[in-house]
């Protein structure tokens, strides 16, 4: 049975709900994406062109007010007005349902859902979007400008080489290693490889290895049987099994310990996984894409990364250039983000003057595209009038000697809050360590996962 050409995002804090939803929905829909972290919603909406979001109403432990659900409903409709949102909760009532519909939701589902009812609602939502005249892929391709390439924006020779490599390798099942600094778009490249591959209609499974603790690594990647350890209350497939038939993207692979590298290498060589608590091998069929900002070849020489694992994952390497090495693209990127945030914050008359563009082009951008994105958003929020000036931007001290404007002394009295100070400290740590999440988190005294949450929270 052909799958419905619809992209569905399921957002829920319960992993069991996400797994059950994915197993059910991937039988009927072309793309099913899941996340337990609502702060990833903006990124997932942008990267996957989501058609329908199935959104949980509560995320904090013990929460029943559905306040979080309404917050994210509003955010989704602001970021992607054409996306259909269906809310779900275990604490539903008529008043809540009516309010959800008034605030823009298309429908309302109670948990635990009935499979037939859920499928009927989702199919109807997808059909309604199609009949509303959503652009076809062919039309989108014709209208796309010459400097857009599957999530990338750029015309520089360095990016043209990246595009050419992706085009050549995408149709194969060759393992790909993507190298580049933080903020250069490694996951964007991985998704482009997937979308251009023969596996495009199957799952793209991203795994941030830096965010998985050593103790949970095997359970998370390989799965486990019921009772395999104290909290293993039921059998669960790992991320490798979930990615079978599609693409597995292992981000931050340079963060793995040697012991975990050995376990991963065994699975990649045998193309089989054995869930914790069992002895039954399960075959997997994955296309492997890895990424890191760490110097793997130096790590091999130092003995902190296995040479045989490096050979296994780098059949083809793609090097993403830092923004300072593709300055021809800075104006294009700045104008793209300007357009995005003009619409988001209802500032249609804002524009960049020539001096601002010159300043943006001469800055060294240690945080790369992610830093430029944040800088544009912050400037648009804080600027007066309809013209963006250099003084509206935060520039970290560095190669060109520019001074940092964001400091405790420069925070306005009305902004002198714990929230503003937290944002400032996260910014300073990221700039100091050139966007390296591991080093920034260590300096701040928090985990990588906690830092990622704060980056999403503050839009950095």
TrEMBL record:
One record GO biological process: phosphorelay signal transduction system
Keywords attached to this entry: ATP-binding, DNA-binding, Nucleotide-binding, Phosphoprotein, Transcription, Transcription regulation
Domain (Response regulatory) ranges: 7-126
InterPro entries: AAA+_ATPase (IPR003593), AAA_lid_NorR (IPR058031), CheY-like_superfamily (IPR011006), Homeodomain-like_sf (IPR009057), HTH_Fis (IPR002197), P-loop_NTPase (IPR027417), Sig_transdc_resp-reg_receiver (IPR001789), Sigma_54_int (IPR002078)
4-aspartylphosphate sites (modified residues): 56
The Sigma-54 factor interaction domain, residue ranges: 152-381
SMART domains the UniProt entry points to: AAA, REC
UniProt key word DNA-binding: yes
Single annotated GO MF: ATP binding
A Pfam cross-reference name: Sigma54_activat
Origin superkingdom: Bacteria
Annotated Gene3D superfamilies: 1.10.8.60, 3.40.50.2300, Homeodomain-like, P-loop containing nucleotide triphosphate hydrolases
Keyword Phosphoprotein appears in the UniProt entry: yes
SUPFAM superfamilies noted in UniProt: CheY-like, Homeodomain-like, P-loop containing nucleoside triphosphate hydrolases
Name this protein carries in UniProt: Sigma-54-dependent Fis family transcriptional regulator
Organism this protein belongs to: Pontibacter flavimaris
């Amino acid at each position: 049975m052909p799958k419905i050409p619809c992209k569905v995002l399921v957002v829920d804090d319960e992993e069991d709900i996400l797994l059950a939803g994915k197993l059910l929905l991937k039988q009927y829909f072309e793309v099913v994406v899941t996340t337990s972290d609502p702060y990833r919603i903006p990124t997932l909406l942008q990267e996957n062109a989501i058609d329908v979001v199935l959104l949980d109403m509560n995320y904090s432990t013990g929460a029943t007010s559905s306040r979080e659900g309404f917050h994210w409903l509003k955010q989704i409709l602001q970021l992607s007005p054409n996306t259909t949102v269906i809310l779900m909760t275990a604490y539903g009532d008529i008043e809540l349902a009516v309010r959800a519909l008034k605030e823009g939701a298309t429908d309302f589902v109670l948990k635990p859902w009935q499979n037939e009812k859920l499928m009927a609602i989702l199919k109807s939502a997808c059909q309604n979007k199609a009949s509303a005249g959503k652009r076809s892929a062919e039309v989108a391709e014709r209208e796309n400008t010459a400097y857009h390439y599957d999530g990338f924006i750029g015309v520089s020779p360095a990016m043209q080489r990246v595009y050419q490599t992706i085009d050549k390798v995408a149709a194969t099942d060759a393992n790909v290693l993507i190298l580049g600094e933080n903020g250069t778009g490694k996951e964007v490249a991985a998704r482009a490889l997937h979308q251009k591959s023969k596996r495009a209609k199957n799952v793209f499974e991203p795994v941030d290895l830096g965010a998985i603790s050593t103790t949970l690594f095997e359970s998370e990647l390989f799965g486990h049987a019921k009772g395999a350890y104290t909290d293993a209350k039921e059998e669960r497939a790992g991320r490798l099994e979930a990615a079978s038939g599609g693409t597995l993207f292992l981000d931050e692979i340079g963060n793995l310990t040697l012991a975990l590298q050995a376990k991963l290498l065994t699975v990649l060589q045998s193309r089989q996984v054995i869930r914790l608590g069992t002895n039954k091998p399960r075959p997997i069929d994955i296309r492997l894409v890895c990424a890191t900002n760490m110097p793997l070849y130096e790590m091999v020489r130092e003995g902190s990364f296995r040479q045989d694992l490096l050979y296994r994952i780098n059949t083809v390497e793609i090097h993403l250039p830092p923004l300072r090495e593709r300055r021809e693209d800075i104006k294009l990127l700045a104008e793209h983000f300007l357009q995005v945030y003009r619409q988001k914050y209802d500032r249609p008359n804002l524009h960049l003057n020539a001096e601002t563009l010159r300043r943006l082009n001469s800055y060294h951008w240690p945080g790369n595209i992610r830093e430029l994105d944040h800088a544009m958003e912050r400037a648009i929020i804080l600027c007066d009038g309809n013209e963006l000036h250099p003084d509206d931007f935060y520039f970290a001290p560095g190669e060109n000697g520019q001074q940092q404007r964001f400091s405790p002394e420069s925070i306005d009295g009305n902004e002198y809050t714990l929230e503003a100070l937290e944002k400032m400290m996260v910014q300073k740590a990221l700039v100091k360590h050139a966007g390296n999440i591991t080093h920034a988190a260590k300096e701040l005294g928090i985990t990588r996962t906690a830092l990622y949450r704060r980056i999403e929270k503050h839009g950095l």
